[in-house]
Amino acid sequence: MAYDDIINAAGQQYGIDPDLLRAQMMRESQGNPKAVSPKGALGLMQLMPGTAQDLGVTNVTDPQQNIMGGAKYMRQLIDKYGDLDKAVQAYNMGPAAYDKYASGQRGLPEETSKYLDRVSSTFAELKKGIMPQQTSTTAADEWLGQSKPATGGVSTVDAWLGAGTTPQPVQQAQAAPVQQQTAPTQRSAYDELARQVGLTARAGVTGIAGLPNMVGDAANSLINMGIGGVNRLAGTNIPQLQMPSEVTQRAMNAAGIPQPENATERVVQDVAGAMAGAGGQVSAGRALANQGTGVLSRVGNVLATAPGMQITGAAGGAAGQGIAREEGAGPMGQIGAALVGSAVPVVAGSAITRALSRPPTTFSKVTPDAAPDVAQRAVKNVARETGMPLSQSDAKAVEGAIIQNPGADPKALARALDFREVGVEPTLGQLTRDPAQYARERNIRGVQGVGDPLLARLANQNNQLQDRLNALRGQPMETYQAGRVLSDSLEAADESLRKSVTDAYSAARLSTGKDLNVPLQGLSQKYAETLKNFGDKIPSGVRNNFEELGLLSGKQRRVFTIEDADKLSKVINANHSNDPAVNKALGDLSKGVKDAVLSADPKGGAFAPAVALAKKRFDLQDAIPALKAASQGTVAPDDFVKRFVINGKTEDVNALSNLLKETAPDAFKEARSQLGNELNRAAFGANIAGDKQFSPERYAEALRKIGTAKLGAFFTPEEVADIQRVGRVGAYINAFPAASTVNTSNTAALAANLQGRLPDLIERVPLPGARLAGNLVRSATKGIEERQFVADALAADLKKRGNKMTTQEAELAAKLLLQPAVRVPVAKP
Q1: At a CB cut-off of 8 Å and minimum separation 6, what does 317 contact?
Q2: Is the pTM higher than 0.70?
Q3: Which residues 6+ apart lie within 8 Å of 149 measured at CB?
Q4: pLDDT digits (tens, 9 = 90+) for 533-552
Q5: Contact 762, 336 (CB under 8 A)
Q6: Which helix (H) or strand (E) holds 749?
Q7: Distance CA 457, CA 791 (A)
Q8: Which of 43, 169, 394, 827 has the fewest CB atoms in 10 Å of its CB?
């Protein structure tokens, strides 16, 4: 089939004037089906391989497939832009590049402008029946690709031009796509002000919509890939989704918002849009951080970190890329300029911040006269940093250490010993807490090929703290199971005490041959008072038992023994409910029963031992609320641990610990594990993945609420010291010093990584002197210095920071500081 038949068929199928396709073919390939452009475009219509694949063209050198593909592509562009001129320009530039031009993000290349002019003029000549002048061929047959005899019967230029062929109807107007050239209009001051306001609005909308548009464009691109695959396989013509960024720009165009007209305005638009986008990103991050939870909150914190750095970096990158583009640089040149532009403000800002931060910690000698004041300040600083209480005796220990070793920094030595005792290797910044040193260690940890050892050290530190706490907590049960174990153990202990009372009473009764009559006068008064105060809040079952004793009749109906008192107590306990008034009434009656039992045999007769044992039981229940709750069944197992171990009062917990040690060692061990588990959850949260970061603030708060004395009820003094020491070490590692400039989003590492790649990128820029510039940048980088910094940070040698003490002297001074730091009150038996 000859080209004219193919072109006419393509024009008819896709509703395009065949002469327009002929004009494009001439300017694309001059009729050579095997033409290949420097950029890789192929065939008569110069289709890029990826575009040809999307269009379903399997053989790009086949004239029919190539022409049909080019016509289909042109139809898509006409439908997308609604204008022939724009479609022709997009055909030459590519839709992505043309969209950036349409949105003011780049200029129109001279090549595209000339391409539109040539296609327009060729189209006009073809409509007049004029054969265009050839530029690189000498014969029409060569231009037509007819170096061999045609197989479709076409052998003349007139036949190729479609002479004698009735043009097919088209959907688009047949006017030639001539680019309109208009002279610039002189605007009034008011019009120019309005235009500048419009340009600012365009930049703001473009920037703010940048992040959602980027996500939307990426999503739509993936969807369009699928649509293209379906179209190729099934032969369908499903329309593809439009890009949100294109929709945004078209909406602004439709609203009449002006576009940049020159290079300066385009670069300013780039910078303003980038700054607005960064500002919108920071605002969105703050909203997520304040309102979101879990993952959303963490994402928000990252987006809102270092807003000044983000905005200046975005502005610098946009300025660099825009200037390079307007100067005619290619893609690699623009990328290199953008990287340089974004890195310069970030690096400069970091340098300024570092310069403004307070100088590194120095270690000066202290005279014996000044040692007391220095010691007091040191103890206060350590206590403030860690949240752990230190006392005057600690200050005396520090004072002694300073006098013996006047070159020591007691805070740094204290931290060094803490790290050593916990078995964690520190970094220099964690020991000195120097803001600049600490921040640089954190910021450099993510720099590839430099900060990897620091990153590994930090991860290992976290794992070691976790292992330390896991060893202390053991294998805790779930909350309900642990509550059940404690409740059952205490109930068994109370039952043992009750049985001892019963046995003693039975022995006394056997020896005397009679029962002990418990006086009911006091109980009668208590019942009458409770009945008056609470009325029907007293359950009927309890009321029936009291009335059987004749308490309100003024005459005791029968003998009331200790065994009767025990049975009545059980009835009272069995009627506890969720009603506070009911439980208060029952509590008053229970106390009345206990008082009645304790008032029996006041002269110390045969029943005195039984009464004494009953008193011991009642006193123990009053001293240990958990024991009373277990005997009465008033607290569910789910709440038992939280109420009586974690949140129990210190003296009550100590008494509970002593009882469990004596009567239920397994329950004691479980209570200890539950306390350890509470600390572990405070430090690491749920930690499902097992690698969550230690939180010094939550851990210190949990320690404050639990208290040293309560920990001492279940842990040895050495273990309590270790628990506190873990908190201090966790704070040294993860609590940022006040003046530090830690970049929590790790964009400093990103900038450093980009900076490390800059020399290679600069060398690839197709400009004179690029290789020399790349070498200069490479020689100016601080890779060697950064590696030495990392090595020093990992060595954590205090002597390099001015401390002239030997290692042995430093350890001695630190031990003098911290040995008395933990004092666990001895629990009363």
Answers
A1: 274, 338, 339, 341, 342
A2: no
A3: 155
A4: 998 889 988 888 888 877 77
A5: yes
A6: helix 747-763
A7: 12
A8: 169
Catalytic residue among 28, 125, 670, 678: 28
Is 662 catalytic? The answer is no
**Burial annotation 401-434 (CB, 10 A radius, 16+ → b, else e):** bbbebbbbbbbbbbbbbbbbbbebebbbbbbbbb
Beta-strand runs (E) in 476-530:
none
Check residue 767 and report its DSSP letter. S
Which residues, other chains included, contact 274 with Cβ-Cβ below 8 Å and sequence gap of 6+?
Answer: 207, 210, 314, 315, 317, 318
Digit-coded pLDDT (tens) for 374-394:
677 777 776 766 666 666 666
Q: Which two tokens stand for residue 141?
A: 């047959």
| Six token digits for residue 73 | 């592509």
CB of 408 closer than 8 Å to CB of 363: yes
pLDDT at position 782 is: 45
Provide the token pair at 385.
């940093």
Instruction: Scan for tokens 């199971």, then name that residue.
Output: 481
Measured distance CA(225)–CA(241) in Å, rounded: 10
In the structure encoding, which two tokens stand for residue 219, read together? 């999503």
Check residues 454 and 691 and name the one with the higher pLDDT: 454
Q: 806-821: per-residue pLDDT in tens?
A: 454 454 455 445 443 3
Give residue-wise pLDDT tens across range 736-747: 888 777 765 544
Print burial letters for 603-615: b (CB count within 10 Å at least 16), e (below 16).
eeebbbbbbebbe
Angle at CA of residue 716, ends 711 and 719, nearest 5°: 80
Cross-strand pairs, 253? none
CB atoms within 10 A of CB 89: 25
Residues 664, 489 contacting (CB under 8 angstroms): yes
Which of these, 132, 89, 126, 130, lies nearest to 107 by C-alpha position?
89
- Longest Cα pair distance anywhere in the chain, in angstroms? 143
Rounded distance, CA 301 to CA 295, Å?
10
Residue type, 274: A
Q: How confident is the model at residue 45 (pLDDT cuts 50, 70, 90)?
A: very high
Other C-beta atoms lying within 10 Å of the C-beta of residue 553: 10
> For the chain, how far is it from start to end, CA to CA, in angstroms?
108
Q: How far apart are CA 649 and CA 637, in angstroms?
A: 19
CA distance 489 to 481: 12
Angle at 107 between CA 101 and CA 111, to 5 degrees: 100
DSSP E strands: which ranges in 303-344? none
What's the pLDDT band for 805 if we cut at 50, 70, 90? very low
